[in-house]
Amino acid sequence: MIAFPYTKYLNAVLETDQAAGVLLMSAGAARELGIAEDRWLYWWGGAYTKERAWFVSERPDLSRAPAMAECARRTLASANVTIDEIDRIDFYSCFPVAVQSAAESYGVADGDPRALTVTGGLPYAGGPANNYTLHSLAAMADLLRSHPGEKGLVTGNGWYLTKHSGCVWSTERPTSDGIDPGPNAADPLPAPLPVVVASRGTGRIEGYTVVYDREGAPARGIVIGRTDEDQRFIANTPADRALLERFVASEQIGRKGRLSRDGELGRFEPG
Q: I need a surface site. Which of 1, 20, 39, 91 has the fewest CB within 10 A?
C-alpha cells in the first residue's frame, strides 16, 4: 500500500526509458513527401480545459473534476461524434480515479466492452514523466492504421486532475472543422473554496487517505472536511496505528471529530 486505497500497482510508473514521436502536417505536405495515404490519420477534434480550483482541497465536491466533464463535452462536440461512435479509447491513467472520472465524464458505463487503454496504462506500460500521452497517441495511431475507418479517443490530464485534454483521430476524413465550441457560459466551473487550518471546534470528514511508510505500516492520515461553520479544512490525524487501521477497515466519510492545531498543521481527532 502506498496511500489508501491505492497499492503500488495502481500508481503511475514514471521512471521509464521510452520514446515516441508524432509528425503533424497538412495533407498537401504529406503528398509532397510521398507518404502513402493509408498511413495518414486525421485530427477530428479536441479540447483543453482546466479547473478553476487548482488543488483538490479547494473543490466544492471532492468526488468531481468538473472541467474534465466539460472537456469531454467539448472534445466530442468538436469532432461531431458521440461516445458510442468511438471504437478505441485511451484514458489517461495515472491513478484509478483518473480513469473512473474520465469514464464517467465521457459516458462510458461499467462493463463497456471497449478497453479503456491501448497502451496498458501508466501503472503497467509506464510513461516517461509527463510524456505518457504521446505514447498513447502513437499506440492509437498503429491501431487505427490497422483498423481503417475506426475512430480513436485519447485523453490526458495533469497535476491533481486539474488540466484536461481530449482528441479524436481516424483514418477517415473528418465530418466537421474540429473547432472547440468553447465553454458553456450558462454553466461555469465552480470557484475554489478557501481552505482553513482550523484551531478549534469540530468538523466532519469529506475525504481522507492513509499514507504508509516503506515498511508497509500506516504512518498518518490526511483528512479534508468541513467545519461546523461550513468552512473547508485540511488536517492530519494522530499517528495512532489502531486509529489508522480503522480508517482503512471501514468508511469514514461523514465522521465527526475535534479540530486543533499542531504547530502550523491542522489536527483532526475522530470522535
A: 39
Q: Is residue 1 part of a domain?
A: no
Start-end of H helices in 169-270 = 241-249
**Contact present, 46 and 76 (Cβ < 8 Å):** no
- Which three cell numbers mark 106? 465521457
* Full domain range(s) for residue 254: 195-270
User: What's the order of all strands across the beta sheet hosting 42-50?
Assistant: 42-50, 163-170, 151-158, 88-90
- From first CA to last CA, the distance across the chain in angstroms is 26
- The residue type at 217: A
Residues 160, 72 within the same domain: yes
Number of helices (H), then strands (E), in the chain:
5, 10
Same domain, 139 and 222: no
Give the pairing type, strands 232-236 and 218-227.
antiparallel
In a domain, 237, yes or no: yes
**Per residue in 21-73, pLDDT tens?**
989 999 999 999 999 999 999 999 999 999 999 999 999 999 999 999 999 99
Consecutive H or E run containing 72: helix 66-79
The model carries a pTM of: 0.91
pLDDT digits (tens, 9 = 90+) for 189-225: 999 999 998 778 999 999 999 999 999 999 999 999 9
For residues 79, 82, 87, 88, the Cα torsion angle rounded to the nearest 10 degrees is 60
Q: Are residues 164 and 199 in the same domain?
A: no
Give the total number of structural domains in the chain.
2
